[in-house]
Amino acid sequence: LLFTCVLGGVTLRNVKNVDTRSWKSTLEESQFVFVYFQSNECLPCQHADIAFESAADTLVGRIQPAIVDVSAETDLASQFDLYVEMLPIFKLFKDGKEVASFPAGASVDSGNLVGWAERQLLPFPED
Questions:
Q1: Residue partners of 36: CB distance under 8 A and separation at least 6
Q2: Mean pLDDT comparison of 22-26, 36-40, 50-54, 119-123, highest-scoring range
Q3: Is the distance from CB of 106 to CB of 74 less than 8 angstroms?
Q4: What is the 3-state secondary structure (H, E, C) of the chain?
Q5: Rounded to whole angstroms, what are the CA distances from 32 to 2, 43, 93?
Q6: 77-88 pLDDT, tens per residue?
Q7: Among 4, 30, 57, 122, whose Cα sits 20 to 30 Å from the Cα of 17?
Q8: Are 35 and 90 spatial neighbours (Cβ–Cβ below 8 Å)?
Q9: Burial 39-55 (b: 16+ CB within 10 A, else e)
C-alpha cells in the first residue's frame, strides 16, 4: 500500500501522514515504522523534508515511513516531549515500541537516514 502526504504544498510519496487518531493503527500495521516529527515552522525541516522523502523511497517495503506535524498534533508531540525548536526528530518503532532515535546533531541527508534505519533492522547480537 503506497501513501502520499502533502507537506508545505509538496507531495511526499510513500509517506503516511499520521495524526493522533491514526497513530496507534499506524504502529500496528507495520512491524517497522520510521517516523519523522517535523513542523512547517521549523527551518531545518525544509532541508530534512527532501532527505526524508528520498529515504522513504529507498526504504518503502521494508519500513513504513510516516510523518507527524508537531505543530498540528500537539497531543502526540507532547507524548514524546517534542517542540518545534527541537526539530527535526526521527524515530524508529518496532512492533509499536520506540527502539531508536536518529542522533541529534547528525547530518540529515538521505544516505545517513537510510543507513541509520537499515542498521536498526539488523538483529541485536545475543549475549
A1: 15, 48, 52, 65, 66, 67, 68, 88, 89, 90
A2: 22-26
A3: no
A4: CCCEEEECCEEEECCEECCCCCHHHHHHHCCEEEEEEECCCCHHHHHHHHHHHHHHHHHCCCCEEEEEECCCCHHHHHHCCCCHHHCCEEEEEECCEEEEECCCCCCCCHHHHHHHHHHHHCCCCCC
A5: 15, 28, 6
A6: 999 888 888 889
A7: 122
A8: yes
A9: bbebeebeebbebbbbb
Least Cα distance to 67 among 84, 49, 43 occurs for 49
34: pLDDT strictly greater than 70: yes
